[in-house]
Amino acid sequence: VFIAQSRASGSHRDLEDEELTRIFVMIPKTYTEEDLREKFKMYGDIEYCSIIKNKTTGESKGLGYVRYLKPSQAALAIEECDRSYRAILAEPKNKSSESFEHDYYSNAMRPELRGNTLPFCMQPEFCSFEKAETRIQEPVSKRLSVVSRLPFIQEQLFALFDLVPGLEYCDVQRDPHTNSGYAVIQYSTAASAIYAKYKLHGFEYPPGNRLTVIFLEDGNDSSE
């Protein structure tokens, strides 16, 4: 057994519902919940849609949640919806929504802010996030880089990442000078790679040794 959840996290279904079926999207402020449902129903069965609103004015913040019945449907929506929605997996509800919105704006808006700051600096919240945040949005691909301070065993690492459907290959390399582990993992779809990174980045394998998992360019158009 490679992956186990803590006793405090509840049943597997609860964990699946909370972490893998809800997506967070950027939408026009004119969208209603029905508009949001209409745009995303093609990817699967939607349990509910909700739009985040300003608590004082009741106006839409241009952000919303879509929750599907299955993780595969949420992954399909993230992979295939229009890039303008900037869809990502939503944080569990136990994380502050304000904190999550802050992180989302900081990452999602950075490419536009680099190109032309004027439109977004008309809105104070974008300017404050730009000054406070230095992380750059990570490009998504079907290929992952896995780094460890300990060397990998090919068969064991393959078995670990093969828990996520769609594994195409696992290429383990070793640095003779540092004895650290390095591997390149590739999946058949970006959705599988997203899931693998989400579940295995920071995973302790073997116990006490955390894996670092990041996306690698795979030669395809990142927008696709």
Automatic annotation (TrEMBL):
Residues 21-95 form the RRM domain. Transmembrane segments: none annotated. PROSITE patterns: RRM (PS50102). It comes from Prunella himalayana. GO terms for molecular function: RNA binding. This is RBM45 protein. The gene is Rbm45. InterPro entries: Nucleotide-bd_a/b_plait_sf, RBD_domain_sf, RBM45_RRM2, RBM45_RRM3, RRM_dom, SLIRP/GR-RBP-like. Keywords: RNA-binding. SMART domains: RRM. Coiled coil: none annotated. It holds the Pfam family RRM_1.
